[in-house]
Design goal:
Helices cover 40% and strands 7% of the residues. It has four helices and two strands. The chain has helices at residues 4-13, 21-28, 78-87, 92-106; strands at 55-58, 73-76. A two-stranded antiparallel sheet has the order 1-2. The longest helix has 15 residues, at 92-106.
Amino acid sequence: MPKRHAVAAYWQTAPVSPWSRAVDVLLDADVACCFACRTMGKQVRTWKEADSYFERAHLRDVRLGGNNAPHNLALLCHSCHTFMTRTFTGCRDCGIQWIRWLESFADT
């Protein structure tokens, strides 16, 4: 499984990003945050420092054909990861849609 900062580095340079513009801006600035709710870790500033705070969440469950590659991982806080695993339907697009849906609440 790749380190968390390696997942963030992948999404920073990905040709197409499924994340909202707000997450893209934070990724570009190397500001560590939950991809879903954008909560920043306590005492965590950059992705290199985030390896013990954020959890790697599979966008497609490994049991359903997903893998541990960075393109199949999102970095989430514990609360968002727990909620996602309880409501996740098991396809890559559904995981991204779930994160975008949750992000809409962070904007309010």
